[in-house]
Amino acid sequence: MKLMSALGLENAECEVTAAQLEKLKEGKKKVLGLNGFGNVLRVVGKLEQSEKILTESLQLAQALGETKAVTRIYLSLGNTARAQGDRESAANYYQQSAQSSQTPIGQMQGELAQLSILLEAEELPRRETELLSQSLRSKILNSDNSGRTWIYAQVNWANSMMKLLRKGVTGVSNNREIDRILVKAIAQARSLGDKRAEAYALLNRGRLYEEEKKWNQAKGFTQEGLSIAPTYEAPDIAYQLLWQLGRINNVRGNQEQAIANYSQAVNILESLRTDLVAISSEVQFDFRETVEPIYRELVGLLLQPDRPVKQSELKQARQAIESLQLAELDNFFKDACLNAKPAQIDRVDPTAAVLYPIILSDRLEVIAALPGQPLRHYSTILPQAEIEKTILRMRTTLTSRRMRILIRRFWQPSKKLYDWLIRPIEADLAASEVETIVFVLDGALRNIPMAALYDGDGYLARNIVWPSPQVYN
Question: In percent, how much of the chain has pLDDT > 70?
Answer without folding.
Answer: 82
